[in-house]
Design goal:
The chain is of the alpha/beta class. The protein folds into 2 domains: about 170 residues, Ribosomal Protein S5, domain 2 (2-Layer Sandwich), CATH 3.30.230; about 325 residues, P-loop containing nucleotide triphosphate hydrolases (Rossmann fold), CATH 3.40.50. It is built from 22 helices and 16 strands. Strand 13 and strand 14 form a beta hairpin. The chain starts with a strand and ends in a 14-residue tail after the last helix.
């Protein structure tokens, strides 16, 4: 007897429908799984056999062949357990085959017949909604599956799934959460700019960065507030739209990082990998490449503290995602592209001991050590960072000041107004302007051109740095709500190139 059940396989963020075919023929008892399965799929034989028996059903003493078609796609993970079990039961007439024709099934089985959570249910749900299929998932994936708007049914055990297939008309699909509920965000921020004393220049720079999605590097002595400032950045970025929520959640779902009690990511991601992280963990990798930190930071912030301590290969691998907003990872098994539009916030000390140029503590590093330390951050990478800040040490009087600092939510309102102007202009933020956009929207008057020419020559700027200055100036003008870039906007943008590679060795930080 032959039975077929629809399931699917994920390659990157793409969903490929897989047909699980089971033939239960006479002969000596045997069981083979074909169709390019990995080890986890091959091991499903024992899980499925035991789960069927412990659920009160008969496991047939027949020659069973399971084919996962199409055969050229690699099948990975335990999500094929449930469809294989249902196909075996259908092939042995324990359930009706017709009940499975318009249904797609994913789920891992425990030995007791219980269903366990699997990865990638959100992109699967979006796929089934387009294909007009029902979706059966484990209970832990229920809300995640319902987000896609499809007819999703979730269950705790194999026995519950069988009962559903027999009496489907008695079951209601999970209601997808309302848009307002998905986007609801706790406005009590863990990190708020009002808790950061002084550092007004740095706060202004972060506001500009949030408004235009510009990359930032902060250089300063230990304890000057670099990490605190970086953690405040997501709080002043615009609230996520529903489409952005889905895009981020798809990545986290595929990576298996979606919290069980949270079906959708509704806040800007903030990722802070340790400096010992490998290149594969940052940009993505594995035998079949999975998303890395640059993709997990999508629409959010990637914070890299102690930037020179990262491996040089890791830093150079950031060039493509910073420039293109996506990352392509090639392996023998596959070549996959993941989205990678994020704000890079980097922090570093001015020297190995951390006190070069400090007004109070004396630096113990030699000039060679200082230069060697700074050379770990290459010119091409620094060229891609729009805003380069010096973070000064705070004075005691500033720490004890009773002046009330501006709240992050107030800054966010200005940022949202500026971002709305950019979205209306070309549907993305200023940092991702194309060359033709720069020519059209970043025009300068005669005085502005003269100022930029002088800065270009004195600072030894590259063509990329030239365009990035104009992009930052455009963002500053948008924050002020004006159409034309003035000299003051341009001067502020040039000020943010203080650590440009051509002058960093001569700059007293």
């Amino acid at each position: 007897m032959l039975a077929k059940v629809k399931s699917c396989s994920l390659i990157g963020l793409s969903v490929h429908e897989i047909e699980v075919e089971v033939d239960a023929a006479g002969g000596l008892p045997a069981w083979d799984i074909v169709g390019l399965p990995d080890t986890a799929v091959k091991e499903s034989k024992e899980r499925v056999r035991t789960a069927i028996k412990n659920s009160g059903f008969d496991f047939p003493p027949r020659r069973i062949v399971v084919n996962l078609a199409p055969a050229h796609i690699k099948k990975e993970g335990p999500s094929f357990d449930l469809p294989i079990a249902l196909a075996i039961l259908a092939a042995t007439n324990q359930i009706e085959k017709e009940k499975l024709e318009d249904t797609l099934v994913v789920g891992e089985l425990g030995l007791d017949g219980g269903l366990r959570k699997v990865k990638g249910v959100l992109p699967i749900s979006l796929y089934t909604s387009q294909s007009n299929l029902k979706l059966i998932v484990p209970s832990e994936n229920g809300l995640e599956g319902a987000i896609g708007g499809t007819k999703t049914y979730s269950f705790n055990t194999l026995k519950e799934v069988i009962n559903f297939l027999k009496l489907a008309e008695n079951y209601e699909p999970i209601k997808p959460p309302k848009l307002d509920e998905v986007l609801q965000e706790d406005l009590v921020l863990e990190y708020n700019l009002k808790n950061v004393k002084a550092q007004r220049e740095a706060k202004r720079a972060l506001e500009v960065a949030a408004a235009g999605s510009h990359n930032v590097i902060m250089v300063g002595s230990p304890g000057s507030g670099k990490t605190m400032l970086a953690r405040c950045l997501p709080g002043i970025m615009p609230s996520l739209t529903f489409e952005e929520c889905l895009e981020i959640t798809k990545i986290y779902s595929v990576a298996g990082l979606l919290p069980g009690n949270q079906p959708v990511i509704n806040k800007r991601p903030f990722r802070a990998p340790h400096h010992s992280a490998s290149q594969a963990s940052i940009v993505g990798g594995g035998r079949v490449p999975g998303p890395g930190e640059v993709s997990l930071s999508y629409h959010g912030v990637l914070f890299m503290d102690e930037l020179p301590e990262y491996n040089k290969d890791v830093l150079e691998a950031l060039r493509q995602p910073l420039e293109e907003g996506k990352v392509t990872v090639s392996r023998v098994a596959a070549q996959l592209t993941y989205p990678a539009k994020f704000i890079l916030v980097a922090a570093m000390n001015p020297c190995p001991c951390g006190y070069y140029g400090d007004d109070i503590k004396e630096c113990t590093c030699t000039p060679y050590q200082v230069q060697k330390y700074r050379n770990k951050v290459s010119g091409p990478l620094m060229d891609r960072i729009d805003i380069q800040l010096e973070i000064p040490r705070l004075e005691f009087s500033e720490l004890q000041s009773d002046i009330e600092e501006e709240d992050s939510l107030s800054v966010r309102k200005r940022v949202e107004r500026a971002r709305a102007v950019q979205l209306a202009r070309f549907n993305y933020s200023n940092a991702f302007m194309k060359s033709q956009d720069v020519k059209k929207y970043c025009k300068l008057d005669k005085e502005g051109k003269e100022l930029l020419r002088e800065a270009f020559n004195r600072l030894g700027l590259s063509a990329r740095a030239h365009d990035r200055i104009l992009k930052v100036a455009r963002t500053i003008a948008d924050l002020e709500g004006v159409e034309n870039i003035s000299v003051s906007h341009l001067a502020e943008a040039i000020q943010y190139r203080a650590l440009d590679r051509n002058i960093i060795s001569n700059f007293a930080i």
